[in-house]
């Protein structure tokens, strides 16, 4: 399983999220990131690690989908 630092991340669209940790999908064994938004109801979400750590292009600039901003 690849490592991902727990803590606060900013999505490229501006909202902040708290990464809880990594988990393994029971059927596919894919690594997923467990996180919660730091707004709204704070429900837990999961996203494939590959998608969480990929880069995206917005307004002609390539940037991480989620950027680590601190503990």
UniProtKB/TrEMBL annotation:
Organism: Alcanivorax profundi
Superkingdom, taxonomy of origin: Bacteria
Record domain DUF1653: where: 7-67
Protein name: DUF1653 domain-containing protein
Matches recorded under InterPro entries: DUF1653-like_dom, DUF1653-like_dom_sf
Pfam families hit by this protein: DUF1653
